[in-house]
Amino acid sequence: MKKHFDLSSASLHILAMALMLCDHLWATVIPGSQWLNSLGRLAYPLFAFLAVEGYFHTKNLKRYVLRLTVFALLSEIPFNLMYGSSLFYPFHQNVIWTLLLGIGCIHLNELARKRGNAALRVLTAAGTVLGGWLLGLVTMVDYNGVGVVTVLVFYFFLGRKWWCLAGQLAALYYLNVEVLSGLAWPVTLLGREFFLVQQGLALLALVPIWLYRGRQGYHSKGFQYACYAFYPVHMLVLYLLFSLQ
To answer: How many other C-beta atoms can be found within 10 angstroms of the C-beta atom of residue 165?
Structure first.
């Protein structure tokens, strides 16, 4: 049987953390290095995809949500220090809250799916997209409403069928290029000038996501909690390094 090259869930976690570190290095101790910020654009779609995988593969949803909530709380002060140089910074919440809102929206859709009512499923899907977007804006979580809907994108288009992959690509293009937009570089090709939107590089995260075929890879309690702890710990370390400059 011909084997396909694939990436494991553990590999995706490590890649996502490395890319996030690049982005946060740019935001703190190595400012002005746009290549770091560009690499960082790939991190969030990976985390959003892994949150969906986590929802469906966890043995205990309540414990999974509780773990995320605990680490969201533990990450608040390091996040506030890194982004606002203050212990209390209410204008921007860390990304774990974004993922939790997305997981909550997934759960509502799953409850509607189990009811077996098509109309209820459509209404729930539309309601969670709109409600998740608004909640993301109101609570000022990282990536705001776009971040919550990104989680739903990987939920609605979960699978390897062509329409799932096309849906992921189209939705991520709209959310990152048309909605978030931001910094853009002019590029001339065949005599025509167009703009390459930096946030659009997030679409490249689909390459490792599509190379994932459900294999878990290395797994242990230590590795699991190291992945959770990486988020608050690395932000605290970067803030301390930045303060010493």
So the answer is: 15
Q: Tell me if residue 185 falls in helix, strand or coil.
A: strand
CB 206 within 8 A of CB 169: yes
Residues contacting residue 66 through CB under 8 Å, at least 6 positions apart: none
Which residues partner with 192 through β-bridges?
189
**Cβ-contact 130, 112 below 8 angstroms:** no
CB-CB contact of 240 with 34 (8 Å): no
Tokens of 114: 């189990």
37 alpha-carbon distance from chain centroid: 15
pLDDT tens sequence across 8-47:
999 999 999 999 999 999 999 999 899 999 999 999 999 9
Cα distances from 87 to residues 20, 82, 140, 229, in angstroms, run 22, 9, 17, 19
Closest to 52 in 3D by CA, of 92, 112, 7, 12: 12
| Distance from C-alpha of 232 to C-alpha of 189, rounded to nearest angstrom | 42
Q: Which residues contact 171 (CB under 8 A, 6 or more apart)?
A: 153, 157
DSSP string, 205-217: GHHHHHTB-S---
Residue type, 164: C
Angstrom distance (rounded) from CA 117 to CA 66? 30
Please give the torsion angle defined by the CA atoms of residues 223, 216, 176 and 198, in that order, rounded to the nearest 10 degrees.
Answer: 60
Q: pTM to 2 decimals?
A: 0.95
Q: Are 28 and 191 in contact (CB under 8 A)?
A: no
Which segments of the chain are extended strands (E)? Answer: 184-189, 192-197
